[in-house]
Design goal:
Chain B: Keywords: Cell membrane, Electron transport, Heme, Iron, Membrane, Metal-binding, Transmembrane, Transmembrane helix, Transport. Chain B: InterPro entries: Cyt-d_oxidase_su2. The complex is a heterodimer. Chain A has 15 helices and 8 strands. Chain B is mostly helical. Chain B has a single domain, classed as Up-down Bundle (Formate dehydrogenase/DMSO reductase fold). In chain B, 80% of the residues lie in helices and 0% in strands. Chain B is built from 12 helices and no strands. In chain B, α1 runs antiparallel to α2. The radius of gyration of chain B is 20 Å and the shape is globular. Classes of the chains: A mainly alpha, B mainly alpha. The interface between A and B is large, with 95 and 80 residues.
């Protein structure tokens, strides 16, 4: 164990935690905005109740997304100062844009929404939740553009040992980013849809209220559409991986030697002939490079080192991502079919909907493991090794301290969030408005 | 271009300290100025709609440092590793505490988080910047004491400006007490800098004390805000020549292309940010009372 290992663990732990909360913020924000719009359009009280109910759950989760996100922005400088110095010229711009264009909008308008229920005109108040929700989605675009650049650096040159940006537009329209953004945002909507499905399923088991049927149906539609986007962009991502990150693809498939007409191994030992070549290049006879041959070529190109990522982790995270993601989307398509044309939700389906919360979360976390571990040993593919990215002046003890603090703190807060969400889900919607001043002292959305 | 970006980063840090400065103060003082749960809610509601937007000034300042001066960003945050870790811990427990306190059965843990999470970063930012300037522990402690005291004063004046009833009265007394600490500490901390803004900052603190004594809360808040602006200005004037020991701005800076692009982005986006954030303060311009009616009229047709 040295500072590098611990810094990597810290990045893994903090990023995975951050991404437990972020997808829900991205998708649920839009969902709540949609509910409030429905209330605005129809005037039906059930939509207002749902807006406030899911709004409260959204806020509980939003807090965690924000505070774990602050750590991310400081972490590059703290643990990865060599990386930061090398890439800041390129990588910093999307981060600065994220703050200026997305975070300000998200935080400011959410504050207005939380406290503006009575103070703002109804239309302005509705606009606030949309602005906040759109801000969340915008932030995802900028951070994913930065992340995509690490896998497939474009629009830069290296001057005096530092990356220098030459084309901002190329960085923001990186092919890798354009595939990754809809893929990840789509996945976020699947997670948020799954969350609404689980909550609605719980309530459909207790009561047959039409309100919960509407919520569940809306979430089924959202999850199914988002699932289609994720699958489509997943295919695009796989083809880009074939072109841009051959080593990741080879590791994800356990393919050791260059092969034409490569088979796809479902699990080790069970293979579908030629499918890998088909997925990689839309050609069943395409040549796919193998890890060992790539290693040889990389050694010639970059010098002696091990250029192979952690093969079992990459292999299995890829499969877990697909299986768990597909299961969620399959469940939503099944649900849509079973409840078509005003058919009731059968109770076994409501029970199955409870699975729609954990399944996509496992899928998105696996997706990030595939993405980040598959990029190893590079922080910037072909330019900077992870081992050369770490802060030279930071001691093992310092990283160990911060890693311990963050892990314990995050763990405690994640449990607290789970308890808090569960409690408010069980409470259900506010059936009546507070009538007296004393009752109003416990505001539903405020402090 | 390099100079311009240094000025922009100084501006972003200034915005951060002015805005988050008072909400740190409110977070620290909420238990002191309130006598019951309702008054505590009243105190915290003064910052409720705005604290998160204020915090984005920090995210933007740090993001801009990363983009415009990568080596400076990397150097500062890897050098001040443990203090920054503790700042982050503070911001985490504070953020969660503020968002959750209205949603938990017993807000005690949240309230503790808000106090600790406001005081810790308020102290540590001063310590980090003082250490950047003087590279000595006593200076860092003095710098931390200074920012802690000034945030408390700034927050107390804001509370006096934004509340009614007993909380407003107690906030005024607290502000006077805080100024009794802040002014001597400021004299000790700022006389070392000796620049014009540093001296003007001391004068501004003294003016704030006189104004809050005479119950001119709005002007007193302008004076404490002025003191924060002038102090940050004084600090960044010192940092200009040596942002980090052994580093110059030119060495730390990104290339001209990146700085030009960032300038356009900043020029286009910052005015919007200032307008809608300003609008938030306008929407919530009224003083916060206790037991304000909230909620909506059930079944009322949307307007």
């Amino acid at each position: 164990m040295d500072a590098l290992d611990l810094a990597r663990w810290q990045f893994g732990v903090t990023t995975v935690y951050h991404f437990l909360f972020v997808p829900l913020t991205i998708g649920l924000g839009i969902f709540v905005a949609g509910l409030q719009t429905a209330w605005h359009r129809t005037g039906k009280d059930q939509y207002l109740k749902l807006t406030k109910f899911f709004g409260k759950l959204f806020l509980i989760n939003f807090a965690m997304g924000v505070v774990t996100g602050i750590v991310q922005e400081f972490q590059f400088g703290m643990n990865w100062s060599e990386y930061s110095t090398f890439v800041g010229d390129v990588f910093g711009a999307p981060l600065a844009m994220e703050a200026l264009l997305a975070f300000f909008m998200e935080s400011t308008f959410l504050g207005l929404w939380i406290f503006g229920w009575e103070r703002l005109p109804k239309k302005a108040h509705l606009a606030c939740i949309w602005a906040a929700a759109i801000g969340s989605n915008l932030s995802a675009y900028f951070i994913l553009a930065a992340n995509a650049w690490m896998k497939h650096p474009v629009g830069y040159e290296v001057v005096d040992g530092k990356a220098r940006m030459t084309d901002l537009w190329a960085v923001l329209t990186n092919s890798t980013a354009l595939a990754q953004v809809p893929h990840v945002i789509g996945a976020a909507f699947v997670v948020a849809g799954g969350f609404v499905l689980a909550v609605s399923g719980y309530w459909l088991l207790k009561t047959r209220a039409p309100m919960w049927r509407s919520a569940a149906r809306a979430a089924l539609v959202m999850t199914a559409i988002a699932g289609a986007v994720v699958a489509g962009t997943g295919d695009t991502s796989a083809r880009l991986m074939y072109e841009q990150q051959p080593m990741k693809l080879a590791s994800a498939e356990g393919l050791e030697r260059d092969t034409t007409g490569a088979a796809f191994s479902v699990v080790p030992g069970i293979e579908i002939p030629r499918l890998l070549s088909l997925l990689s290049d839309h050609d069943p006879d395409a040549a796919v490079q193998g890890t060992e041959d790539l290693q040889r070529r990389f050694e010639q190109q970059f010098g002696p080192a091990d250029y192979r990522p952690d093969q079992p982790v990459v292999f299995w995270s890829f499969r877990v991502m697909i299986v768990f993601g597909m299961a969620t989307v399959g469940l939503s398509v099944l649900g849509l079919w079973l409840t078509r044309r005003r058919r009731e939700f059968p109770s076994w389906l409501s029970r199955a909907l409870l699975l729609a919360l954990p399944l996509p979360l496992v899928a998105v976390i696996s997706g990030w493991l595939l993405s980040e571990i598959g990029r190893q040993p590079w922080t910037v593919a072909g330019e900077l090794l992870t081992a050369s990215s770490v802060s030279p002046g930071v001691s093992l003890a310092e990283v160990a301290t911060s890693l311990t603090i963050f892990t314990l703190l995050y763990g405690a807060l994640a449990v607290a969030e789970g308890v808090l969400l569960t409690r408010h889900v069980r409470k259900g919607v506010e059936e009546r408005e507070p009538a007296t001043a004393a009752e109003r002292l416990e505001p539903s959305l405020m402090y | 271009m390099i100079e311009l970006w240094f000025v922009i980063i100084a501006f972003l840090w200034t915005g951060y300290f002015v805005l988050e400065g008072f909400d740190f103060g409110v977070g620290m003082l909420a238990p002191i100025v309130s006598r019951n749960a309702e008054e505590r809610r009243q105190s915290l509601e003064t910052i409720g709609p705005v604290w998160d937007g204020n915090e984005v000034w920090l995210i933007t300042a740090v993001g801009a440092m990363f983009a415009a001066f990568p080596a400076w960003y990397a150097g500062v945050f890897s050098t001040f590793y443990l203090p920054v870790t503790l700042v982050l811990v503070g911001l985490i427990v504070r953020g969660v505490g503020l968002e959750w306190r209205g949603k938990v059965a017993d807000p005690r843990w949240c309230d503790l988080g808000i106090v600790v999470g406001s005081a810790l970063p308020a102290f540590l930012w001063g310590a980090v910047f003082a250490d950047l300037l003087y590279d000595s522990l006593p200076a860092a402690l003095l710098g931390g004491a200074f920012t802690l005291a000034v945030c408390a004063l700034h927050g107390a004046v804001f509370l006096a400006l934004k509340t009614t009833g007993p909380v407003r009265r107690r906030a005024r007394v607290t502000a006077l007490a805080a100024s009794g600490v802040a002014i001597p500490v400021a004299v000790a901390a700022l006389s070392g800098l000796g620049s014009l803004p540093a001296l003007a900052s001391m004068a501004s603190l003294a003016a704030a004390t006189a104004l809050i004594w005479r119950r001119r809360e709005g002007w007193a808040f302008a004076a404490t805000a002025g003191a924060v602006v002038l102090t940050t200005l004084a600090v960044f004037m010192e940092l200009r020549l040596q942002p980090l020991p052994g580093l110059t701005l030119a060495e730390a800076a990104s290339g001209p292309y990146t700085l030009t692009m960032l300038s356009w982005i900043g020029l286009i986006t910052l005015p919007f940010v200032l307008v809608y954030q300003g609008w938030t303060y306008w929407v919530f311009r009224k003083r916060v009372r206790t037991a304000i009616p909230i909620g909506y009229v059930a079944g009322a047709p949307p307007r």
